[in-house]
Design a protein that fits this description.
10 strands; 6 helices; 37% helix; alpha/beta; single chain; binds ligand 4EH; 29% strand
């Protein structure tokens, strides 16, 4: 089985590469892909670069060019739910694009014809994450994640996203990865560790907690890989 492990930033996959140790590096379509054999599983690892377009390209490449049959995303996110604090983990049950807007034609935010507002993550992988959470003694929240091409550092925007999509966290890549995997029929799982509260202090909090939160998410994802 070939398993994709994806992040958006180098800091989000660095802990994964460290864990697998040896890997083959391939430059392809403006990105770098790392292939490793890990406990009998062929891994393809990459960070996409920031945003929905780059993450779409990388998720598609991992599935179509490297033959990934499942995709796990590990990274950080901004919290919307007040229950989510820095370092907490959230598993996406479904994802939406908060900056997709053709409401001028009467459609709901996040919707375009022949699309859907939400894309649901793979239930088996979510169930596996629940097992890992118990084994690790970690409380992992499940919720809706909203994705958009903006770093949100504004209480008003954050609250609008929360109310409009009933979202618990926000980031910049998950929903595009979801659309790709759903279209290609590749089971996917999006895990994020909170780095900030998407408010006026977000960039400072992000800078301070990116690394530790990225490790939190990566360690959890690798525990899931160990059980696949
Ligand atoms: N508040 C927030 N809003 C939107 N997204 C996020 C995230 C998740 N990632 C981190 C990174 C921020 S942009 C970036 C640009 N330059 C340096 C670092 N990050 C982008 O890949 C999305 C964490 N907090 C978020």
């Amino acid at each position: 089985m070939t398993l994709a492990i994806m992040g958006a930033m180098s800091e989000e996959i660095a802990p994964i590469l460290e864990r697998v140790g040896e890997y083959k590096t391939t430059a392809y379509a403006g990105n770098t892909y790392y292939e490793a054999s890990y406990k009998g599983i062929n891994l393809v690892i990459a960070y996409s670069k920031i945003g929905k377009v780059f993450s779409t390209l990388t998720a598609t490449t991992m599935c179509e060019h490297f033959g990934a049959q499942k995709l796990l995303f590990s990274g950080v996110a901004g919290a919307i739910s007040p229950k989510l604090k820095v370092g907490d983990l959230i598993v996406a049950t479904k994802l939406a694009q908060h900056d997709l807007d053709i409401t001028a034609f009467g459609h709901p935010f996040g919707y375009v014809p022949e699309g859907s507002v939400y894309v649901e993550a793979d239930k088996e992988l979510i169930a596996l994450s629940k097992e890992v959470a118990v084994e690790m003694g970690k409380s992992v929240q499940e919720g809706i994640i909203a994705t958009g091409d903006q770093f949100v550092a504004d209480e008003k925007r954050k609250n609008w996203i929360g109310e409009t999509f009933k979202a618990d966290a926000l980031e910049m890549e998950g929903a595009s990865v979801a659309v790709v995997c759903d279209a290609l029929d590749v089971p996917f799982f999006i895990l994020r560790a909170i780095s900030d509260a998407a408010d006026m202090d977000a960039s400072f909090s992000f800078d301070e907690f990116l690394e530790t939160s990225a490790v939190e998410s990566a360690e959890f994802v690798m525990k899931m890989v160990d059980k696949l």
